[in-house]
Amino acid sequence: MKSEREGRPRGARWLRALFVIAGSLLATGGVIAMDGGTPAVSGAKLFNAGNACLREGRIGEAILNYERASLLAPQDPDIAANLMFARSKAGLWTGEPSALERLVHKAALHDWATIAATALAVMVATLPFALLMPRGRPLWLGVRVTAGLVLAISLAGVAMGLPDLRGAVTVAKEAVAHVAPAPAAGTVFHLREGETVLISRALGDFLLVRTRDGRQGWVKAGEVIPIIPSRKGA
User: Fold this and answer.
1) Is residue 98 situated within a structural domain?
2) Do 86 and 63 meet the contact criterion of CB atoms below 8 Å apart?
3) N- or C-end of the chain: fewer Cβ atoms within 10 A?
4) What digits encode the pLDDT tens for the residues 138-168?
5) Which domain holds residue 177?
6) What is the mean pLDDT of each run of 10 residues along the chain (234 residues)?
7) How many other C-beta atoms lie within 10 A of the C-beta of residue 78?
8) Domain-located, residue 41
9) How far is the C-alpha of 125 from the C-alpha of 144, rounded, in Å?
10) Could you give the number of structural domains in the chain?
């Protein structure tokens, strides 16, 4: 009996935690929060900003805006086409994403989180009906199994989309990646303008980044801009 009483609160904590995660992702993925109370930026505005940067030859900033726009509108073909064009113009990788990657990006990250939270809520809410209504148990079991499958798929979408939260774009013409977070530290490699990386952590004015092929190095923060900006601005 003790283990059952302890199990219910633990399950409730997991449910609350998932709703918190979903809410956080909604706030981050649904809108790109800008400094202070500035209104949210739409995918269309970011797309237009990317086009303007592209015309002015600022490839890195163009790719940054297209990446941000694609988070808000992952199925927009114009955003995807212009992002591919900008990458090609910068001489960067433009290979086709895998079938699994295409499936994950059918929805925005916050959508996957919301679906997961909803599916889990359905599973929890239908449990009393399944226990207290024996005649309808097959129906409620079917609902719970379906919700469980939806939960598993959506959690996989969240897990595969989480790296997007740490993504960043190189906006400098050429960014130097150092072996340590200091300007005088040795150079390990260079990043090309527009190249996308993952931010591992920040230290002072430097960011530890990882490239698509697994290289790591410290880059000045102003040379690499997070795709999802902080509350203080990008």
Assistant:
1) no
2) yes
3) N
4) 888 888 889 889 888 887 777 776 666 789 9
5) 166-226
6) 46 59 51 42 89 95 93 86 92 68 65 80 80 78 87 78 81 94 93 93 93 92 88 50
7) 14
8) no
9) 10
10) 2
* CATH code of the domain covering residue 206: 2.30.30.40
| Residue 136, domain member (yes or no) | yes
In terms of domains, do 173 and 217 share one? yes
Tokens 């303007």 belong to residue:
52
Distance between CA atoms of 90 and 174, rounded to whole angstroms?
A: 12
Prediction pTM value = 0.66
| Residue 125 CB neighbour total at 10 angstroms | 12
pLDDT digits (tens, 9 = 90+) for 205-220: 999 999 988 899 999 9
78 found inside a domain: no
Q: How many helices (H) and strands (E) does the chain have?
A: 7, 7
Distance CA 107, CA 114 (A): 11
Specify whether the CB–CB gap between 195 and 93 falls below 8 A.
no
